[in-house]
From TrEMBL:
Keywords: ATP-binding, Ligase, Nucleotide-binding, Protein biosynthesis, Transferase. PROSITE patterns: GATB (PS01234). Heterotrimer of A, B and C subunits. It catalyses: L-aspartyl-tRNA(Asn) + L-glutamine + ATP + H2O = L-asparaginyl-tRNA(Asn) + L-glutamate + ADP + phosphate + 2 H(+); L-glutamyl-tRNA(Gln) + L-glutamine + ATP + H2O = L-glutaminyl-tRNA(Gln) + L-glutamate + ADP + phosphate + H(+). It comes from Lachnobacterium bovis. This is Aspartyl/glutamyl-tRNA(Asn/Gln) amidotransferase subunit B. The gene is gatB. One of its GO terms (molecular function) is asparaginyl-tRNA synthase (glutamine-hydrolyzing) activity. Its EC number is 6.3.5.-. It holds the Pfam family GatB_N.
Length: 477
């Protein structure tokens, strides 16, 4: 970006809440399912069907508001946002314009060692729309209403961000906080967390904001980052050509690395908002707010401080583990069983993260039992298996949740601690590799590494490498 300009960015983040049923009816919110099977007259907008508010939606919204330092609106209500679109069955969306449930919050982010506070203008509750499926072969679009009526909160930030790095840090902080609360799984690939990005540029030092555009269709942090960079460049080029940026909604195409105009940007008046006549106002008492506040779980910052005091792990390891609620839960539950937090942390940050990356899995997909994981740690720590075998067995636990004790016995993977057997195998290795023996005696000490490897291979990995090294060194001298 040109140093003459700065980018001004605000976000509208939509989060699907983790309730079992929809916001105004009893239909399931499960992701997937055959089209139009999680529906009823209410969420498909049938005439005369009356909505009933799901209390858990209000509590999740309050929980997110409290965790992001918002003020809770004690007298809140729902409004109708009127617009026609095929996936909007009522021709209006039930949302909150005039009295959103949360206002005036903030979250703190850190980018390159610098901390910054990002303001939250409001958080409001609303219902999700259905999903249009486009069939290019038949040249038709069909509608799946399973998602219609799934509860959402929309988190509207202030225009406080100035770079894609700050945006990603803000989104990661929100996702982490909401996951710790259990309010949503925040899976971008399933659409349970989505972001619309409002971008404008202005000359450095200019006080007034430039004309903003809204970028949609952003379903990954990578796409968001690329869209910000691409739109910033596009707007600067328009300004440099002495033209005016048009306020509009644009759709980002991640494959083409470019955006295209969807429609001119509507204002609130274009949606003809009015209070929903079928839903009574919501009154939130001080007692209800306090009840939600007291039920809040330990969030990341608190957990990190406790880990540094309670567990024998480094601050660096504690920071990495607590970045994910799933990893933090796995670490705590396993450590609670085996009482060896250092070794648990090493496995999580080593083998587990490697396997997740290799299998292209999210840590939310981990489904092996903590009992099996803890038992593996105990077997390794007591010397029943060595490091190489422990990694092999962990791979089986990761993929198939095997009982490590049974697996080790079935595959005969226990460490061979018989000195006679070890010495016999080592003698055979020395006899078969005279060049490596000569290299070692000539001062090439690294040759012993090859001999250790050959011995481990002959022992099918069932020896303790340090013991093999010790016996080899003695024999070579």
């Amino acid at each position: 970006m040109s140093r003459e300009y700065e980018t001004v960015i605000g976000l509208e983040v939509h989060v699907e809440l983790a309730t079992k049923t929809k916001i105004f009816c009893g239909c399931k919110t499960d992701f997937g399912g055959a089209p139009n099977t999680h529906t009823c007259p209410i969420c498909t907008g049938m005439p005369g069907a009356l909505p009933i508010l799901n209390k858990k939606v209000v509590e999740y919204a309050m929980a997110v508001g409290l965790a992001t330092n918002c003020k809770i609106t004690k007298h809140s209500k729902f409004d109708r946002k009127n617009y026609f679109y095929p996936d909007n069955p009522q021709n209006y969306q039930i949302s909150q314009l005039y009295l959103p449930i949360c206002r005036d919050g903030k979250v703190e982010i850190e980018v390159n060692g610098t901390k910054k506070s990002i303001g939250i203008h409001e958080i409001h509750m609303e219902e999700d729309a259905g999903k249009l499926v486009h069939d290019d072969w038949e040249d038709v679009s069909i509608v799946d209403y399973n998602r219609s009526g799934v509860p959402l909160i929309e988190i509207v930030s202030e225009p406080d961000m100035r770079s894609s790095d700050e945006v990603i840090a803000y989104l990661e902080k929100l996702r982490q906080t909401i996951q710790y609360l259990g309010a949503s799984d925040c899976k971008l690939n399933e659409g349970s967390m989505r972001a619309d990005v409002n971008i404008s540029v202005r000359k450095v030092g200019q006080k007034n904001f430039g004309t903003r555009t809204e970028m949609k269709n952003l379903n990954s942090f990578k796409a968001i980052s690329h869209a910000i960079e691409g739109e910033t460049k596009r707007q600067i080029e328009i300004i440099e050509a002495n033209k005016e940026v048009v306020q509009e909604t644009r759709r980002w195409d991640d494959n083409k690395e470019s955006s295209k105009s969807m429609r001119s940007k509507e204002d609130a008046k274009d949606y003809r908002y009015f209070p929903d006549p079928d839903l009574p106002p919501i009154y939130i008492s001080d007692e209800w707010i306090e009840k939600v506040r007291k039920s809040q779980p330990e969030l990341r910052e608190e957990k990190l401080e406790r880990y540094k005091k309670e567990f024998d792990i480094s601050e660096y390891d504690a920071t990495l583990i607590t970045e994910s609620k799933h990893l933090a839960d796995l670490f705590e539950q396993t450590s609670d069983i085996c009482k060896k937090p250092k070794k648990v942390a090493n496995f999580i940050l080593g083998e587990l993260l490697r396997l997740l990356k290799e299998k292209e899995m999210d840590d939310s997909e981990i489904d092996f039992s903590v009992e099996h994981f803890a038992k593996l740690i105990e077997l390794f720590d007591s010397g029943v298996i060595n490091s190489t075998v422990s990694k092999q067995v962990f791979g089986e636990i990761f993929l198939n949740d095997v009982d490590p004790e049974k697996y080790i016995k079935e595959k005969n993977l226990m460490v061979v601690d018989d000195n006679g057997t070890l010495e016999r195998i080592i003698d055979e290795v020395l006899e078969a590799n005279p060049k490596s023996v000569a290299d070692y005696k000539e001062g090439k000490k690294k040759a012993i590494g090859f001999l250790v490897g050959q011995t481990m291979k002959a022992m099918s990995g069932k020896a303790e490498p340090s013991k093999v090294n010790q016996i080899l060194t003695k024999k070579l001298q």
